[in-house]
Amino acid sequence: MPDFTPKIITSRSNPRIVDAAKLQEKKHRTKTERFFFEGHKLFSEARMTHAPIECVIAEEHAYEKYADLFADPDFEILVVPSSVYEKITAEQAPQGIYCIAKSLHNLYFSHTNAMNGSQFGDIINTESPQKLLICDGLRDPGNLGTVIRTANALGFDRLILSSDCADVYNPKTVRAAMGALFRLPMVITEDIPTAITDLRTYGYDVRAAALTDTAQPLGAYTVTPKTVFVIGNEGHGLSEQTIAACCGSVIIPMAEGAESFNAAIAASILMWERTRI
To answer: Domains in the chain and their CATH numbers?
Structure first.
């Protein structure tokens, strides 16, 4: 049986500390299939949702302050002085809790080699309409984290992300998601137009959030349980290929002279419209 007795580390050059610090880099997160998150709120959320925590590095005072969170652990605990914790933290005002977890699930789906023969319909429930949102090229990690948090709060079943969206395990994404990352299923694909085509074969009415000649204002367009909205890149919007794959497009009415909505705000408005029907 594993020994989860807290271990003391006092050296900044300890291999465990060096490894933890390297998780700031996406390539190391991808290579090791692990990611990190900080703070007692995310730690509490992770324990509540049974996230696959591998190890927690706790600054010694934080270990004492949040002792209840460390009760009955099924993960390794490393206790370090503040001088060591400073080497790994990404926070300006750290709370002294640095969690390392295994990647939550296999997020990737290939339409060219569909998961060894499975179909896109195996990922989404085709028996009844699901609340889905597609993000294509959403590259700001804070925006992506906010979308994840909002989708979870509004009861969405899944996000479909393009492979060039921000890394879901980027520290800014994880922080902005505020624990929703542990709850909301997601799938990442390199081919959003094909994903849209697949959804349409299952009867979904996929609508691009894009200003086109035929775009309908939100409010004039009738949202149904089969409606799926597509949000694009913060600066460039959606590609012509993605728009062409959709059933049509919608716009959110704005005051005259307004530039545009922030991508996360636009996604939130569209998700609310889908939720309230």
So the answer is: 7-102 (3.30.1330.30), 108-275 (3.40.1280.10)
